[in-house]
Amino acid sequence: MLELNKVMFVGRLTRDPEVRFLQSGSSVASFTIAVGRRYKNSKTNEMVEETAFIPVKAWNKQAEFVEQYFKKGQAIYVEGRMQQENWEKEGQKQSRLVVNADRISFAESRAEAESRRAGGSDRAAQPTGREPRPPMADEAGDPGPAPSDDEGGQAGVNDDLPF
Hints:
By secondary structure, the protein is mostly beta strands. It has helices at 61-69, 110-117, 137-140, and strands spanning 7-13, 18-21, 27-40, 47-59, 75-89, 92-106.
């Protein structure tokens, strides 16, 4: 049986990332992203908004990248894997799921981030309707070439039959 543990989120940081250093010399950045979802309630026909708060950990170079370039409220793209953390507190077993980040990238332009930080309108905090750009090679690996706009929105579609 094939098993897969992969998640991708675009959300906003709920606070500045906190970086700490382990005895091994590794660094780890911890932060939480708020990920929203809007849908129409089929019974009431009203729009409903939900927000999930996702804890994330980034390690070493990714931790330094997050600490240097991301602040509270900024949009972020995170790709990684879920991991369950277990511990005991006052005799009670505790656990939570966290995302261990493999890739991290900006999910808004520099101008959008600066406008929001400068107290721009609430529109800067709203989704722009654009897909976030994939991570750049020097940020977090090489995601491959992006589809070009001149393909009429049909990127990756091949109408030719294989025979």
